[in-house]
Amino acid sequence: MVPLQLEGLPNWLESLFASEFAFAVLFAICILEGAMMLRFMPSELVVPSALALIGSSIPETIAIVALAVVGTTIGQFLLFRLARRAGREYVIQKRWFPLTESRLERFDHWFDRWGRIAVVVSNTMLVVRGLLTVPAGLSEMDGRTFAVLSSLGSLFFQSILAGLYLLGGYLLTF
């Protein structure tokens, strides 16, 4: 398979992905992405970059997707717990949190309207990925329920990314 070109990936990150620490680096990056602290690369490039640089055999793909799901779920669960304990204002005042009060209000309304399914769906979508974590943390949702819903949405998202990468690489060989 011919790997897809991933422009914009920082050189230091590329070298880490190609090292013996690749899976540990992937796991750490996914935790940061889940906690909405990943600023050096778009979340939709994490799994394709890992597949390009670590490998894309079936066992490697399964391991990469599994690590990404577990890592992002841990990161989102940490943000969920932070929102629950520290409150909405604390999270919004942090520079690493990517939303303003008005935009977060829109996500509050989505969560109020759609409930649990909104967590799964938002974790599957680009741009709004994980943004319902704070409204879920401020709600009465149980932490275990959130973790299951978050991991389900992340599984869909990471699997779609892996599938698109593999399909793109397959199509390039024709």
Automatic annotation (TrEMBL):
<dbReference type="GO" id="GO:0005886">
    <property type="term" value="C:plasma membrane"/>
</dbReference>
<feature type="transmembrane region" description="Helical">
    <location>
        <begin position="61"/>
        <end position="80"/>
    </location>
</feature>
<dbReference type="InterPro" id="IPR051311">
    <property type="entry name" value="DedA_domain"/>
</dbReference>
<dbReference type="InterPro" id="IPR032816">
    <property type="entry name" value="VTT_dom"/>
</dbReference>
<feature type="domain" description="VTT">
    <location>
        <begin position="51"/>
        <end position="162"/>
    </location>
</feature>
<feature type="transmembrane region" description="Helical">
    <location>
        <begin position="152"/>
        <end position="172"/>
    </location>
</feature>
<feature type="transmembrane region" description="Helical">
    <location>
        <begin position="114"/>
        <end position="132"/>
    </location>
</feature>
<feature type="transmembrane region" description="Helical">
    <location>
        <begin position="21"/>
        <end position="41"/>
    </location>
</feature>
<dbReference type="Pfam" id="PF09335">
    <property type="entry name" value="VTT_dom"/>
</dbReference>
<keyword id="KW-1133">Transmembrane helix</keyword>
<keyword id="KW-0472">Membrane</keyword>
<protein>
    <submittedName>
        <fullName>Membrane protein DedA, SNARE-associated domain</fullName>
    </submittedName>
</protein>
<keyword id="KW-1003">Cell membrane</keyword>
<keyword id="KW-0812">Transmembrane</keyword>
